[in-house]
Amino acid sequence: MRRLCCFTIGLTMLCLVVSAFALSSPEDVKARRGRSSAARPTPIPSSDSLAEGSSREVNAKGSRPSTIIVIDAGHGGVDRGGIPRQAIAEKTMTLDVAQRLQAVLVASGYRVVMTRDSDVFVPLPTRVAIANSYSNAIFVCIHFNSATRRGANGIETYFYSRDSLALASAIHYYVAGGAPSPNRGVRRRGYYVLRRTRIPAVLVECGFLTNPSEAQYAQSANYRQKLAEEIASGIRGRGSVASAAGSTQLAANSATVPLQPFIDQTRVRDPDISRSKRSAKRSSKSKSSKSRKKSSVASDDSEAAKTKPSRKKSQKKHTQISDDESSSTKKKSSPNPTED
Predict the structure, then answer these.
(1) Could you tell me which of 256, 227, 238 has the C-alpha nearest to residue 200?
(2) Which pTM value belongs to this model?
(3) 57: part of which helix (H) or strand (E)?
(4) pLDDT (tens digit, 9 = 90+) per residue, 299-322?
(5) Does domain 63-274 have CATH number 3.40.630.40?
(6) Hey, where are the domains in the chain?
(7) What is the rounded CA–CA span in Å between residue 110 and residue 120?
(8) Do the Cβ atoms of 159 and 140 come closer than 8 Å?
(9) How far apart are CA 202 and CA 172, in angstroms?
(10) Are the CB atoms for 134 and 68 separated by under 8 Å?
(11) What angle separates helix 165-178 from helix 221-236, to the nearest 10 degrees?
């Protein structure tokens, strides 16, 4: 009997509890849930998880640089480069360094455009047109130097516009600093590909192929790879070039690239243009000389044709005169019949 009473009382209490929960408002339920969640402690993220989250955020936003790099391998095709009877073809060395530079920059996330990717001849206006077809870009022209004097050596970097000085300073800083060759400095000069481009443009002379030591360096694949990596470092560090006023504070910031002093050679004649002009002048001179020769030959032929009949006439006159003279002598020698 007691067990039955206890069971009945327990069942009644359970029904009361269920009805109380059923009659409670949604606000009370949300409050109870909030209290229960607030009671739970939140885990503290570690530094490793924060680093992983930040790297995922950077990758999600896109870490690819927006600047397009236009790489121009000098010469190519029928244009061997260098001077006559040069042992090493400049066009081969420039293409190899350009392709290595392309691989390094692509691995860093840059978009790269090549003016030539094989041994073909590309005219200078075409190279400039390719560079100017991209607004947010820089132009890097790769060359090797040459001279008739075997002792000439060193690294040079050329630019023309003021907007290109920072790029020239950064590239020359790394290339000249990493090469065993002397530093010949940054130079301002009006080469066609530098003067006609509307974007920051530089021309890097990676050493003299006519110098025995530098020619030996250039024939090494490891050295050409190092040149490509140093040029890439200059491209990446072009934004950290210090101004002329801040170049004295390099000790405070080791990551700053000093603004390089330069030699202004803008009054020096552009060999690309002068060669074309000279060839054009030579061709025009040869054409004019040929036309003059033809006209002189034609005039000589016409004069000869004119003089031939006159000579015949003169010969006829001479024969007539000789005949008359002979007849007169005959008359003089013959006795006069009236004198008898």
Answers:
(1) 238
(2) 0.62
(3) helix 47-61
(4) 555 555 554 454 544 454 444 444
(5) yes
(6) 63-274
(7) 25
(8) no
(9) 10
(10) yes
(11) 150
